[in-house]
Amino acid sequence: MYKHQFYFLLLVLFCSVISFAQNTFDIQFPQNDRNAVCQRCFQVFSQKPKEVSFSIKMDKTNTLFFEVNDRKWFNLLFKNAGDGIAVDIVAKDRYGCLEVLPELQQIRGELLKPVYAAALKNTLKAAKDDKFRARIGRLPDAFKNKEIEFNILFLSDKNLCQYYTIFNLESYQWDLLDMGMYLDSITYKTKLSAKTDNDQYSLKQKILTFTIPFEKNKSTYSQDDIKPLYDSLRLTDFNIRKIDIKAYASVEGNAKRNLKLQNERASSIVEAMQAFQEPTIATKVSTSENWVEFLNDISGTSYESFKSLSKNEIKQKLVGATSQELEKYLRNHRKAVVHLELERIDKYKDMTTEVIIILFNQAIGDDNLDEASILQNSIFEQLKDKEANPEVLASMEIPKQLKYVPFFNKNSAFRYLKDERNLLIAYKELQELEKLAPKDKKIKYNIAALKMRIWRYNVEPIKQESFKSEILALKKYGIKQQLINRMLVNYHIIKSELYMRERDYNNKDKSVKYIVENYNNVLLKDYDYLSLAQFLTYYADLKAAEDLLQPKMKTVDVNENLLFYYLNLTLVNKEVIQNPEYRTIMLNAINLNKERFCRLFNASNEGGVTFQLLEDDYLHDTYCENCEQ
After folding, report:
1. For 549-607, how does the pLDDT look when each residue is reduced to its tens digit (9 = 90+)?
2. Distance CA 538, CA 497 (A)
3. C-alpha dist (Å) from residue 191 to 7, 198, 536
């Protein structure tokens, strides 16, 4: 996957009571006549395609620019002499935790002198990424060492008609939903960590997840405790390669003691399991108090009022009889969610690739195809770990006959999974193989999966409607409908991108609508959820992105990247954050990564969403409780 970071600017209209204590220049602030004097400005904004975005940028000389990605809309907006723009510079020190929040005002910081249509058009120049910039002023010296943000005032005939706060959604370029490739079975390259460049895959790996409950005040596990679990996994063919333990403490009592106890419990689980095998088990342990399930469980009970209290206030109440009464819930919150990454024991692991290939050729000659398949997978693992040159595949002596087609298919699929630069080579190999086995479902599927990539990256021309028919025809060769649905969603992701480049917003919306209406027909992994949410956000379908992620947000083991992407989307939505359940989601994020949560309230140009979220009393209290010492 080709990844790079980009920023999507969400623009939200803000209106409030007008209150000033500074120079407002020649700007007029309409009252009852606002609809009349701002009619043309409102019309221009109502006609703005949702794909059009704008922001304030500052260069190294502290010069400020208004940046927009659509020149035609810019000219429409600043048509008349009195149409213009002004900047409100806001500093974060406005929101100190030791002080009362200031009265909500229309102008939150220092207002710069407005710039009108003639001057804006005279300085408008092309910028990077198909954008345009017009100069609008300079940063005053008083703000040079402060954390600041820029709000935008849009003026019509010198009347303030729109006031915008810019929110930054940190994101990553989406990819297609992971289609995988057929080797022995479908093999997926991407893992659940959606922000890593170390995408890997394995032919001999599987992941198991289970939960181990903790007894109150018990901190150790013996081999006898773990052996029934270990035996139940039937690890005769596998070793445990990695253990990822998320240990949760119930919320009553001292937080530091709770987390220390959870660390001891998690470590004892690892030690007990390590006793059953020689290869060292890589481990990752994280601990937190289980606020998510606690707040979920008290919903609808006589203790629901606790949900409005701070964490310290809840702990003070969870003593004596109250603690005993709630123990029926609390005992379920003390647990470890354990993810085991299992690796198949490879009896050829210590042999050289050259020796394994000799054994492979012998197995093919003896018509022992099952053993040959195991040997082929061992060769792949050594190539994947860069223990050998991929050219050794040419030394595999495979007769070009129908019964050996699976070996050729796996070699071609492996070439692509090993290195995406082999995309076209693998595609051509599979097309040739298709002539030998025209009805082989694995070949058909792999060709379609690679063709999707070829189309997306414009490697060579693809006949779109013919390709769609090819995808639909996979069903008659035995490909499951779930896999076909996944390809059809990808088909429309690419279509929407093409329509977007052509500024064909109507057809782009149709493809996005298809995706929104059909992703429920696809079994999505966490990686897919995140990629699809980013895609919908980029195309300004924020509600669809929220709806996609929301059902996963209140689970204690939610993927961290999914959770924080959801917060990025929703923190700016007052209607969403007023929901009592939203506090559960925020506490989940704080438990997973408090530092990352606090960074959301940094300046929008410093990696945060915006510190102006702290205008909201609820978010301000949450931030001060968890982020400010």
Report:
1. 998 887 888 888 899 999 988 988 888 888 878 888 998 898 888 899 999 999 988 88
2. 11
3. 24, 9, 21
Phi-psi region at 214: left, alpha or beta (left = phi > 0; alpha = psi -120 to 50): beta
* Token reading at 232: 């139940």
One-letter identity of residue 533: A
On whether the CB atoms of residues 164 and 154 are closer than 8 A, the answer is yes
Rounded CA gap, 22 and 171, in Å?
37
At 48 the three-state DSSP class reads coil
> What are the DSSP E strand ranges found in 412-521?
none
Q: Tell how far CA 285 is from the center of its chain.
A: 22
Let me know if 550 is exposed, middle or buried by CB neighbors in 10 A (0-12, 13-18, 19+): middle
Q: How far is CA 603 from CA 9, 92, 151, 616, in A?
A: 13, 8, 12, 16
Given strand 238-249, what is the order of strands in its sheet? 205-213, 335-344, 238-249, 282-289
The phi and psi torsions of 182 (rounded to 5 degrees) equal -75, 120
Handedness of CA 608, 613, 615, 619 (dihedral sign): negative
> Beta strands 238-249 and 282-289: pairing type?
parallel
End-to-end CA distance of the chain: 40
Do the Cβ atoms of 180 and 189 come closer than 8 Å?
A: yes
Q: For 483-529, how does the pLDDT look when each residue is reduced to its tens digit (9 = 90+)?
A: 999 999 999 999 999 998 888 989 999 999 999 999 988 888 888 89
Structure tokens at 299: 């919903």
Nearest to 357 by CA among 306, 325, 394: 394
pLDDT tens-digit profile of 413-452? 998 988 888 999 999 999 999 999 999 999 999 999 999 9
Query: If DSSP states are collapsed to H, E and C, what string results for 18-29?
Result: CCCCCCCCCCEC
The DSSP code for 55 is: E
CA 510, CA 584: separation in Å to the nearest integer? Answer: 35
Q: What's this model's pTM, rounded to 2 decimal places?
A: 0.76
